[in-house]
């Protein structure tokens, strides 16, 4: 019976992690919608709702600590609990980046876009896919899927490079666009960091299954 309760607690822990991941995914989605539609109230909601993500992380950390103290898990079970704590930290930071983009939307206000937003929304789409796939890989203990997520980070990095070079050219051609270009550079940077943190979650998948922690993206540490 105690063993069954322990497995129930582990399952609840993973479910809480997935729920927090869904919250973060929604925050990223809404921050990009706020940017594309210049929706200040939505941006403000993203900023405000970051508190809920922080609370979710606090609850997960407490649940993990309770399991560690009361059950003293070993081997794979121990790695699951430790990994959930690490993943919760990554998710909280991803939400912080989404909140940052919400703040940038408020800074931009009615500022005209200096270029069509194609690469930045694509970065957001890939980062969100990476997040969802990383969490799925964790629940399925799928190491191969985890490594594929790490490979996708290169795609986000490439898009960020494109955004950077495009915006630098615009600023050189027209110095009056510096502020507007800088805002978009910040947005792209936040999205690149979100993808990095999804890669960190993928690394935790490998650690949970194998006990080894690979460095799929050393730039994210």
Can you walk through the features of this model?
This protein has 221 residues and is mostly helical. It has a single domain, classed as Phosphate transport system protein phou homolog 2, domain 2 (Methane Monooxygenase Hydroxylase, Chain G, domain 1, Up-down Bundle), CATH 1.20.58. The chain has 6 helices and no strands. It is elongated, with a radius of gyration of 19 Å.
Number of domains: 1
Largest sheet: none
Radius of gyration: 19 Å
What is the CATH superfamily label?
Phosphate transport system protein phou homolog 2, domain 2
- Outline, from the CA principal axes? elongated
CATH architecture designation: Up-down Bundle
CATH class annotation: Mainly Alpha
Counting DSSP E segments of at least 2 residues, the number of strands comes to 0
Count of DSSP-assigned helices: 6
Q: Ends: how far apart?
A: 41 Å
Order of helices and strands: HHHHHH
Rounded average pLDDT: 93
Brief write-up:
By secondary structure, the protein is mainly α. It is built from six helices and no strands.
Provide tags for this entry.
221 residues, mainly alpha, Methane Monooxygenase Hydroxylase, Chain G, domain 1, 6 helices, elongated
Give the SSE layout.
Elements: H1 2-37, H2 40-71, H3 75-108, H4 119-140, H5 143-173, H6 178-210
Helix pairs in contact: 1-2, 1-3, 1-4, 2-3, 3-6, 4-5, 4-6, 5-6
């Amino acid at each position: 019976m105690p063993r069954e309760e322990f497995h129930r607690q582990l399952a609840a822990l993973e479910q809480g992690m997935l729920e927090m991941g869904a919250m973060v995914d929604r925050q990223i989605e809404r921050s990009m919608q706020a940017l594309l539609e210049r929706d200040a109230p939505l941006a403000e909601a993203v900023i405000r709702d970051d508190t809920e993500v922080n609370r979710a992380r606090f609850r997960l950390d407490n649940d993990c600590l309770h399991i560690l103290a009361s059950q003293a898990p070993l081997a794979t079970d121990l790695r699951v609990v430790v990994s959930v704590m690490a993943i919760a930290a990554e998710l909280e930071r991803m939400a912080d980046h989404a909140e940052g983009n919400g703040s940038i939307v408020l800074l931009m206000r009615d500022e005209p876009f200096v270029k069509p937003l194609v690469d930045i929304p694509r970065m957001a789409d890939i980062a969100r896919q990476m997040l969802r796939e990383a969490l799925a890989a964790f629940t399925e203990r799928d190491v191969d899927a985890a490594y594929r997520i790490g490979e996708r980070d290169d795609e986000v990095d490439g898009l960020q490079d494109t955004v950077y070079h495009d915006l630098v050219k615009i600023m050189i051609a027209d110095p009056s666009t510096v502020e507007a270009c800088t805002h978009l550079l910040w947005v792209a940077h936040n999205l690149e960091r979100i993808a990095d943190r999804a890669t960190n979650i993928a690394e935790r998948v490998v650690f949970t299954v194998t006990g080894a922690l690979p460095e799929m993206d050393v730039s994210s540490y």
